[in-house]
Specification:
This protein is α+β, with helices and mostly antiparallel strands and 180 residues long. The chain has a single domain (4-179), classed as Alpha-Beta Plaits (2-Layer Sandwich), CATH 3.30.70.20. It is 31% helix and 25% strand. It is built from six helices and eight strands, in the order E-H-E-E-H-E-E-H-E-E-H-E-H-H. The longest helix has 21 residues, at 159-179. The N and C termini lie far apart (36 Å).
Length: 180
């Protein structure tokens, strides 16, 4: 079975939030529920120029997802293709998954009384489409989606991109820990 991944070159992100808009349109989520969101650091001066840094926040579909192991309702499962799904019909709304997510990527939907997260638009993938956020909506072309080995090969062929992705992921993990 092929495994899928979605990687973002955050250093190339312009902060346009087109990925957010595409996701909101696809899932029709309330304002306080975000499967993907762009956060902004800045403005700050770098080498005498005003600079902004943008960070894409979303579920990373972990290899060993802590949200799945802690869920007492067993509502979160990892598919064979690597996609981590939260079944809202099985969720009891306890919020345990929200507390353990290292990426702050799970929201509580007050209207439905359940936790919600990015499901990588598995229903689109199952029909041969890209996730909404990766379906040619990114103006900076910094969202990469596909089979893990192919995306890893693209990044390997562009060593500057690999460094950027690794730096962005490490920085995000560090900042998430500092926020806790």
């Amino acid at each position: 079975m092929n495994k899928y991944t979605l990687k973002v070159d955050e250093n190339s992100c312009w902060g346009c939030k087109s990925c957010e808009v595409a996701c909101k349109q696809e899932h029709n989520t309330p304002n306080d529920v975000k499967f993907i969101y762009v956060s902004e650091d800045g403005p700050k001066y770098v080498n005498g120029k005003l600079d902004f840094t943008y960070r894409i926040n979303m579920c990373k579909h972990c290899d060993d997802p802590p949200c799945a192991s802690i869920c007492p309702a067993e509502a979160i499962k990892k598919r064979d293709d690597g996609i981590v799904i939260l079944n809202e019909d099985e969720c009891n709304g306890c919020g345990s998954c929200i507390e353990v997510c290292p990426y702050n990527a799970i929201s509580f939907d007050e209207e439905k009384g359940v936790a919600r997260k990015c499901n990588l638009c598995y229903f689109r993938i199952d029909n041969g489409l890209y996730p909404a956020c990766a379906d040619n909506v990114c103006l900076a072309h910094c969202i990469y989606f596909g089979e893990t080995d192919k995306i890893d090969q693209v990044i390997k062929e562009k060593p500057w991109l690999q460094r950027r992705v690794e730096q962005a992921m490490m920085e995000r993990a560090r900042q998430t820990k500092e926020e806790d």
